[in-house]
Every structure is written in C-alpha cells, then in structure tokens.
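User: structure tokens for this one?
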Amino acid sequence: MKIYQRYFLHIIAFLGMFGCLVPNKAIAQQSGIKRTDLQRHDLSVPGYEAIQVRVDFEPGKAFGLHSHPGEEIINVLEGELEYVIEGEKPVVLKAGGVLFIPAGKNHSARNIGKVKASELATYIVVKGKPLLTWKAEKP
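Assistant:
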C-alpha cells in the first residue's frame, strides 16, 4: 500500500509543478469576459512594447480594478461599457467611443448593456513587466 501512496504523492507533486508553468493569462480569464491577444510588437523606444487585445464582455459582467505598466488606449467596438478610473467620474462609452488611461492608474470596466460589449485595448507598456496588476476592491 505504501508504494501506491508514494506513487500518488509523486503524481500530485508533478501536477503541482506543471500548474506553475501554466501562463497567468489562463488564470486571469474571468467568467463572462473573454480576452483575445491580437498582436504584440517591440517599439522603436527601447524597453517598450505595444500590445493589442480584444475584450468581450457578456451583459452585466465587469473587469475588476487593475492597472498597467504603461498607457492604455480603448476603442469600444460594440455595446455599452462603463469605465471607472481612479479619482475620476465614471465614463460611459458606446460603439465608436474612445478612452485614454494613464500609466499606473487603477481602473475597471463593466458592460452596462443588455447585449455583448467589446473593446479594442491598445497598451504601450514597459516590456517584461506584467501587463496587468490587480487591485483589491474597496469594501
């Protein structure tokens, strides 16, 4: 019986190590929100890169408070999204609306409509830093 226990413990340890290798992207995906990486390129400014992501929000779903190590430029593709940027009044954008979020500013987004909403997010960020840092919500 001890052989089976030892074998079982080895399998659990292996799976635990394998889990550490799974990219954070898979872990960061939230229910009702789909992030699709479109492109990533080095910029002519040393140490910076541009990243484009499409984010689809199901009705009523929100992407919690977070920040980026650089600027974010948003173009709403469809639906109606409410953005809250730390220290500013909420902004509601419909398809065609655009928004600039300064580097390091905590912000969130929520689909306030009854249909799917989508945005094209373009990031100009410091290369090698995590693209997204979560901020704990205030009670």
